[in-house]
Amino acid sequence: MWVALKIRYRNPRRPGEAGVKVIPDQLRRAAEKEILEGLGFIVLEIASTPFAQAPHAADTFLEHERLR
Hints:
Elements: E1 2-11, E2 14-23, H1 29-38, E3 42-51, H2 57-67
Antiparallel strand pairs: 1-2, 1-3
C-alpha cells in the first residue's frame, strides 16, 4: 500500500461542481494545485490517503474481455 495525496476542490461559480483528484506523490502536488486554480477551482484540502496499486491496466482489460 502506498501513500498518495487527495486533492478536494470545488468551483465557486457553480456550487454543484466539485471533485477529488488523487495524485501519486508530492512531486505533482504543486503542479496539480496550480492547474486547478488556473481553471477557476478553489482547492479545499490536500491530504494524505492510503493508495493500493491497481493491477496492470492491460491485464485488467484482458480479464474483462474474457468475462464478456
